Amino acid sequence: MANATFNRRRLLQASGAGSLAAVFAALADGTAMADPGRLAADSPAVADLGPAVVQFSLMSSLLVGDTVYIGSRNLNPARIVGFHLPTGTITARTDLGSGYSIQALAADATGRYLYAGVLRDGIDGKPNIYRWDLGTPDLPAVGVAETGDRDIRALAVAPDGRVYAAGGGQTTNPPALWEYDPGTGATTSWGVPDPGATIAQAIAATASTVYFGTGSTLGGGSGSSPARLFAFDRATRMSANILPADVATGVSVTSLNVLDGQLGVGVKGPGKSVLINLSDHTDYTVIPKTGVMFRQLGNQVFFVKEPGVWAYNTGTKKITQILTEDVGAIWGLDVFGSQAVAGSSYDVISINPATATALKYDLAGAGAPGGPQLCMGLAAGAGDVYVGGTGTIARHQAGPAAVSYLRATGEAKDAVVVGGILYTGQYNSRGIYAYDPATGQLPHQVAALPAGQNRPLDICWDATNGLVLAGAQNDTGGGGCFAAYNPATGQVTTKVNPIDTLQMVRAVATKDGVAYLGGDNIYGTGPRSTVVAWDPTTNQELWRLDPGQTSGVAALAIQGRYLYGMSRRAAGLFVIDLETRALVHTGDLRSVCTDFGALTVSRGMVYGVSDTTVFRIDPATFAVSVVVAGINGGWYSGPHITADEQGALYTLRGPNLVRIDDGAAVQGLRRQGSGR
Fold first, then answer.
1. Is 15 among the domain residues?
2. Looking at the predicted structure, is the pLDDT value of residue 171 above 70?
3. Same domain, 127 and 7
């Protein structure tokens, strides 16, 4: 049961490991974090299958001199490595003292200092801006500033060395523009130019002006602001929105880069980019293609529009594609000599724009230091267990060392195995992917979701109708969608906002050909936990019920005549009788769950997992009991639990995949007359 809010805080607490240092050590060497001594004597058998996903993944890259510096993603500790282009090897590394990913890198005009901004779980008193002295790369990067926003998503360094940061990350606080002065060490807010924005992910600076891009994504919709571009006068700190009308319908400004006399502006939504004259903001050129990460070489302006890299000729006004291969997500673009250099999910890529040819350097082969990674979707079946990572899916087969990695662009937020074939809900805006191990073809898209429905959240199999069912979220516009994909015909049927315009489809369960959709509303008003019965063949609602939860649905599962649901935050349990369409039970799960959770069914029993605990729900009494305490899984997109055909359960303990056999306890309950 995937979800959009991260579940890292428990991983970074000392619960079950004795100290934060022990948690870090567990992540470093892949050992389990839970203390077996904490488990009761009658606890189920728990087998440790080793680290679920091990790799190096990135979220940023920047060329400084002849070295591409790369910021890691979902690794602990967060790290920066230097990839030396002339030798094709990793020649430098530094680890940061906070954060789980590095989305922002910027260098000063001298190339001496590299600044990094991190994504983090909360405002915790630790730095979210670091500085690495590239003149002494053996010395670690130093935390130099903490802004009042949780995340740093973009950094820029003005010619005089002052650093500017954009980010946000808290739905209650719109993003501010922040300045760090290395001369005084002071960190200052320049204020919030748009109270309706939910994110700021683009920034650029010149000697006179700071450009600050805002918008609404990662929780947009419900009256939040559209894309805006503010030009701040560095002398007065006054600002004005200068976003041209041609792209004002966009949802967010996603990229800003200072070029030769122009500002490259990427905007999500309108299908266009713009080049704004730095001397006259009313003078601009429209590029008829969405783009990010603008770089200039002569009269060629390079930019990224996945799955490729493009060039816009400022003289002829023509656009050509200079990288045609899908290389996964691209996190950086620069110019080195006559080449364009990109940092992708897996490689550093040198692109010859004249011939549209590319030379790839595999990061793992070059020595990039990987490690156990925070995980996403999970599925088991046909003898395999699949775990989603960033840009990859780990396939665990029988045997202690039988782990292979399948390149899959984006992130598998949830997954299901049907007849030996893996189906995933693939973020960002990748729809439904499939992988058949019999063919050897890598995971690939088999069904697209409607525009804007970028974040699949839950996926399951409707055996009655032969359909893969999925629920999704629209990050920028609010609401969500339902999708039913038929593998036999290749057709997909979708419905945008089947619950209402505010509730995403957080959870999907199915029985006897009917899909049950669980809603989640992240906004302050409106219904927030509606359950809708849906006919996937006619694509119509059958009935709906409000279980009266104070927060949205986290997960759904069906056993017998009952639909089990758990809600977020307040961690409530609710049970609906599908025959009478009535709410028959509500309960409290706060002793085993603090926010997100997942549910599955095995051997006639309903099981759940939270950030801390694996638990079971008695199908006769609805009583909740602990199966494994201190599970503390290393999840990025909320906890998951799944079962194979034999009834074994799979989830994470720390960064490791574990198999849980609860068969003895189930038999005991049945002997007592509880199970059915």
1. yes
2. no
3. no
Two structure tokens written together for 387: 């775990």
Q: Which tops the pLDDT comparison, 83 or 326? A: 83
Strands 163-168 and 540-545, bridge-based pairing: unpaired
Looking at the structure, do residues 151 and 126 belong to the same domain, yes or no?
no
Domain that holds residue 312: 295-369
Are 97 and 195 found together in one domain?
A: no
Q: Is the previous residue joined to 128 through a cis bond, with omega within 30 degrees of 0? A: no
Q: What phi and psi, each to the nearest 5 degrees, are found at residue 478?
A: 85, 165
Q: Where are the beta strands (DSSP E) in 244-290?
A: 252-258, 262-268, 273-277, 284-287
Same domain, 274 and 318: no
Q: How far apart are the first and last CA of the chain?
A: 25
Q: Which uninterrupted H or E stretch holds 345?
A: none
Give the integer Cα–Cα distance in Å for 427 and 3. 11
> 3-state DSSP call for residue 69?
strand
Q: Are residues 34 and 66 in the same domain?
A: no
Residue 221 has pLDDT above 90, yes or no: no
Q: How many residues does the chain have?
A: 676
| Residue 399's pLDDT band (cuts 50, 70, 90) | low
How many beta carbons lie within 10 A of that of residue 245, not counting itself? Answer: 7
Distances (CA, A) of 168 to 8, 62, 569, 614: 18, 22, 22, 33
pTM of the model: 0.90
Last residue of a domain, one of 344, 369, 394: 369
Q: What is the mean pLDDT of residues 218-232?
A: 89
Residue 200 main-chain phi, psi, to 5 deg: -130, 120
299, pLDDT greater than 50? yes
- The type of residue at 56 is F
Please, are residues 564 and 573 in contact by the beta-carbon 8 Å criterion?
Answer: yes
How far CA 293 is from CA of 134, 230, 333, in Å, comes to 23, 18, 6
Shared domain for 152 and 266, answered yes or no, is yes
The reported pLDDT for the residue numbered 440 is 87
139/180 same-domain check: no
Residue 551 domain-assigned?
no
Last residue of a domain, one of 369, 402, 433: 369
Give me 481's structure tokens: 């969608």
Q: Between the CA of residue 610 and those of 32, 416, 472, 615, what are the distances in Å?
A: 17, 19, 21, 8
Q: Which residues of 274-290 are buried (b: 16+ CB within 10 A; e: fewer)?
A: bbbebeebeebbebeeb
DSSP 16: T
Strand residues in 182-306 grouped as ranges (E): 186-189, 199-205, 209-215, 228-233, 239-241, 252-258, 262-268, 273-277, 284-287, 292-297, 300-305
pLDDT in tens, 504-529: 999 999 999 999 999 999 888 999 99
d(CA 582, CA 360): 58
What is the helix (H) or strand (E) element at residue 2, kind and residue range? none
Q: Is residue 192 assigned to a domain?
A: yes
Query: Could you tell me the CATH number of the domain that includes residue 211?
Result: 2.120.10.80
- Comparing C-alpha atoms, which of 115, 83, 117 is closest to residue 100? 117
For the chain, what is the domain count? 4
Task: Kindly state whether residues 258 and 123 are assigned to the same domain.
Answer: no
Q: Which pLDDT belongs to residue 65?
A: 97
Which amino acid, one-letter code, is at 511?
K
Q: For residues 298 and 338, what is the distance between their CA atoms, to the nearest angstrom? A: 10
Q: Is 163 exposed, middle or buried (0-12, 13-18, 19+ CB in 10 A)?
A: buried
Pairing state of beta strands 79-84 and 89-95? antiparallel
- pLDDT score at 400: 58
For residue 363, give the CATH number of its domain: 2.40.10
594 in a structural domain: yes
8 Å CB contact between 115 and 105: yes
Average pLDDT, the chain: 91
